[in-house]
Amino acid sequence: MSLLELEHVERRHRSGAHERTILRDVTLELDAGELVAIWGLRRCGRSTLLRIAAAIEPVDSGLVRFAARELGAVGSLALGGGIGYCTRASLDAPSVLDELLLGQLARGVRRLLARARAYTALARVGAADCAERAPHELDGAEEMRVALARALALEPSLLVIDDPVRGVDLLQRDSILSLLRSLADEGIAVLISADEATALAGADRALALSDGVLRGASAPELAEVLPLRRDQPGRRRASA
Asked: Full-prediction pTM beyond 0.90?
């Protein structure tokens, strides 16, 4: 059984008497240690799909399961309970360290342990020198690294990241994508969205979302080849 499963998911947005279908019969599976990218133009439903995968937004029909649990029954408890949803840092936090402590303390983590986890997570993503800085002082790449660290401090098995290179300088995008690849190689499932082909580098699978329909290999076993994965010694490569 896959770590994350979406089965025949439908999502509609209503505005007065008007209704628009955002997602149509979307099915997707994601395994531990896999990096999957959802590609599509802006307003195609990518963000909605990721919020549903992270149990932030409900579905109108269909099922969403995480670690064999139906998220419709778990709701927001999935966040911090195995799912990390990456958003940019809050500008209200006095420092990056405070930003990383807040979520942990709210979940009952002791302060000393929370600080240790925060520093470890920041070092893991290459942002150790950001700990004492104010969030508004960060550039785009640093914001993304801090967002990842904040999620990693809660020790998730799934990371959901909406457009991880948005606002990141072109010269720093490859390092962010390499970081995501390395997190997947450590066993974390990573689900991202992208609106540029260059953001698909390192992914195991890239699926296209258009008119609410998800196209591509919806499950790992359906992917015949892995053209986007960078060669890495010792990793199994799928055969055609």
From this structure: no
